[in-house]
Design brief:
Blueprint lengths: L6 H4 L3 H14 L4 E17 L2 E19 L2 E7 L4 H18 L18 E4 L11 H16 L6 E17 L4 E18 L5 E5 L10 H4 L4 H17 L1 E2 L3 E7 L1 H13 L4 H5 L28 E4 L20 E6 L2 E2 L6 H6 L1 H4 L8 E2 L8 E2 L3 E4 L8 H6 L3 E13 L5 E13 L2 E7 L1 E6 H6 L1 E4 L6 E10 L4 E9 L2 E10 H4 L3
Parallel strand pairs: 4-6, 8-18, 9-16
Antiparallel strand pairs: 1-2, 1-5, 2-3, 5-6, 6-7, 9-23, 10-11, 10-15, 11-12, 13-14, 16-17, 17-18, 17-19, 19-23, 20-23, 21-22
Helix pairs in contact: 2-3
Length: about 500
């Protein structure tokens, strides 16, 4: 359903503020300037055992001006969205650039981008989640909680919902002017079973966060089916045998594999990490620029794309925060590293090595008081066009484990050595699931793991996963990002017993 951009946002002096800021930047000698006006609204709700614990609603509004003056960045921002303040911010940003100029050893140049004159884009959703009365949300989650707590083996139920609406206006000295609005939701339900001896086990829903509206909670996902199965799955998990460590074949469900993609591919192919000048939160990367077109990331089956168009993706936009139109491109093709995630400066600076001269639209700031940095698009593993079902993948395993749902993870500062756990692990014997296992983590290096991928599921197994809380930069910024993937079969992966590894 097509929604209009919120009229209250459009009533702000957007174009007049842009004209004032951009002209002030030109008058002060800037060779480039851009302005963003942003309004971010968030609502967080949490419930425990059917009772409301917290409900918070917040709005952040502000204006940001970024300039290039004498080859140096300058930036200034304010919560005061007025014409006079926009002009003042432009002059302040130029003053910042002048102050920083002696420290700058690499003059800023930006890759060219076509001009987009007064265009709008709104994400695909049916029901604005902020239009739904919080009392109706509480009533739905009370119903879910009561249903789970009716089972003797479920002792506690936690329900949480994060929702956001992000509206941005952008204009630059080249003539681009864009207005965008998008929504996103992250609902989670966790059941807890407490053992008589004092131990406990948890089970969380595997429904992914999405760029959709309230319809996701009332028909866009089969919540009834997953919640109905949670008590039995939780009991089975609590009573399951502890895994015997060793080498196993793994069939990994998209609800788990998306996170491995995020950590071992998504972060590793951010070009600023590969170049070594970004290390916050996730370190740098083993996939350095000199390996472009040479690094064998995985098997020939492996086709990974970066995509800002993905339907309902958390990183789906019409234009990035540098006015670059959304695109789709290859990152890994035939198992070979062939692309990175770029902003306009990195694209221009590394054009010869990259073989491209245009940004692929990966600049993003998480609010009006932050500078845009290169952030992850929807990075996804493509399914095999005629690929098998999940059941067929499992049928091809003699001794293995089927992995469902994400949980904890650990990866080194080069995005190379890692281990991942999950929500549920099912033992596979002679092509059949024979019950759950406990205390499982799979461990590998990035290239070893993706090099062990023997089969990829078909489109019928493809699911979009993701997260609201990908962190990067200093000061820290948080971005939401989706990762699609099919089920996949990996041979001979090392399995750890997490209890034994912890010395218990």
């Amino acid at each position: 359903m097509s929604h209009p951009v919120d009229p209250a946002f459009l009533a702000l002096p957007l174009r007049d503020a842009a004209d004032a800021a951009l002209q002030a930047a030109r008058d002060a000698g800037a060779t480039h300037a851009d302005l963003r006006v942003e309004r971010l609204r968030g609502q967080d709700l949490s419930m425990r055992d059917g009772r409301l614990e917290s409900l918070g609603d917040d709005i952040t509004l502000g204006i940001a001006v970024r300039v290039v003056h004498d080859g140096t960045w300058g930036f200034a921002s304010s919560p005061d969205v007025t014409i006079d303040e926009a002009a003042r911010l432009a002059r302040e940003a130029v003053a910042v650039a002048r102050t920083a100029r002696p420290l700058n050893t690499q003059p800023v140049e930006l890759a060219d981008e076509p001009v987009y004159d007064d265009v709008s884009w709104v994400s695909d959703y049916d029901i604005d989640p902020f239009s739904v009365d919080p009392a109706d949300k509480v009533a739905l989650f009370e119903q879910w909680s009561r249903g789970l707590l009716a089972h003797d083996e479920v002792n506690h139920v936690d329900v949480s919902l994060q929702q956001a609406m992000e509206i941005k206006f952008f204009a630059d000295t080249a003539g681009t002017m864009t207005t965008q609005q998008r929504v996103r939701l992250l609902p989670q339900v966790t059941g807890t079973r407490v053992d008589p001896g004092g131990g406990f086990e948890t089970m969380r829903t595997v429904a992914a966060p999405v760029g959709r509206g309230w319809e996701y909670l009332t028909g866009g996902y089969d919540w009834d089916d997953e919640l109905a199965q949670m008590p039995e799955r939780l009991v089975e998990k609590a009573k399951a045998s502890s895994v015997e460590p060793g080498r196993y074949d793994l069939v990994i469900d998209p609800s788990n594999l998306w996170l491995t993609i995020h950590e071992s591919i998504g972060h590793a192919t951010e070009l600023d990490r590969a170049l070594g000048y970004e290390a916050a939160y996730a370190g740098t990367s083993f996939a350095t620029l000199d390996q472009l077109g040479k690094l064998k990331y995985g098997t020939d089956l492996m086709h990974v794309t970066g995509d800002r168009h993905t339907p309902h993706g958390l990183s789906t936009v019409g234009y990035d925060d540098e006015g670059v139109a959304a695109q789709q491109w290859d990152i890994i093709r035939g198992g070979l590293l062939v692309g990175y995630q770029l902003d306009r400066r990195m694209a221009k600076q590394n054009a010869d090595a990259l073989g491209v001269s245009r940004s692929n639209g990966c600049a993003y700031a998480d609010g009006p008081h932050r500078v845009p940095v290169q952030r992850m698009p929807n990075v996804s593993l493509q399914p095999a066009p005629q690929g098998p079902s999940t059941e067929e993948l499992i049928a091809g395993v003699e001794r293995g484990i089927y992995v469902v749902g994400d949980k904890s993870w650990s990866i080194d500062m080069q995005r190379y050595n890692f281990q991942f756990t999950g929500q549920r692990f099912y033992e596979i014997r002679a092509g059949r699931l024979v019950g759950q296992l406990r205390d499982v983590a799979y461990q590998a290096t990035t290239t070893e793991f993706w090099g062990s991928m023997e089969a990829i599921g078909g489109p019928q197994t493809y699911v979009l996963g993701g997260a609201f809380n990908c962190g990067k930069a200093q000061p820290s910024q948080t971005a939401a990002v989706s990762h699609g993937c099919p089920a996949a079969l990996f041979r001979g992966v090392n399995i750890l017993n997490t209890v034994r590894e912890a010395g218990r």
